[in-house]
Every structure is written in structure tokens, then in C-alpha cells.
Design goal:
By secondary structure, this protein is an all-alpha fold. The chain has three helices and no strands. The protein is elongated and about 50 Å long.
């Protein structure tokens, strides 16, 4: 079974924080290069404040992927078993 590790949570938390800061318009008087550097410093310092939200998002994605995989596996099993076919093994409209 797949799992979500601390490195994944950290990477997601960093991405969430960086996106939030970039959208916020912080540091408007800095040059683009200086602003990028300052944002990276903030992300390095404060990514942990987004860790809980990051973990929640990763779990939601994992659950969604698991449901899709389970659904696809069920469909494949139905097809392989002939479910939905008429009594002669041909399509319902045959």
C-alpha cells in the first residue's frame, strides 16, 4: 500500500506557501529578483505553517486516486467476467 511521507508533505507545504505569498503581492517595492529571493527565504523559514494543510491535500488526492483505481479495477473485472453481456455472451443489443 502506498503512503505519504514527510518529504512529500514538506514539498507540498512549500509549494502552497510559495503560491500564497506570490499571489498576495507581498514585497511590491522589490525588484523581481529581490522579491523572488525574499519569497524563497520566507518559504524556507515558514513552510511548516502549511504542513497540516499540505498533508490534508495529499490525503485527499491519495483518496481520490484510490477511488478511481478501485473503480477502474471493478470495471475491468466486470468486463473480464462478461458482466453486462446477454445470455449468449454477446452484447445486450445482439
Amino acid at each position: 500500500m502506498a503512503s505519504i511521507g514527510p518529504d512529500q508533505v514538506e514539498a507540498e507545504a512549500r509549494a502552497l506557501l510559495k503560491e500564497a505569498i506570490e499571489r498576495s503581492g507581498w514585497y511590491p517595492i522589490l525588484s523581481p529578483a529581490e522579491r523572488d529571493k525574499r519569497i524563497e527565504q520566507d518559504v524556507e523559514r515558514y513552510w511548516h505553517v502549511m504542513a497540516q494543510e499540505a498533508a490534508r491535500r495529499l490525503l485527499d488526492r491519495f483518496d481520490a486516486c484510490s477511488r478511481v483505481a478501485h473503480h477502474k479495477a471493478g470495471l475491468a473485472q466486470d468486463i473480464g467476467s462478461g458482466a453486462g453481456l446477454g445470455s449468449l455472451g454477446r452484447g445486450m443489443n445482439s
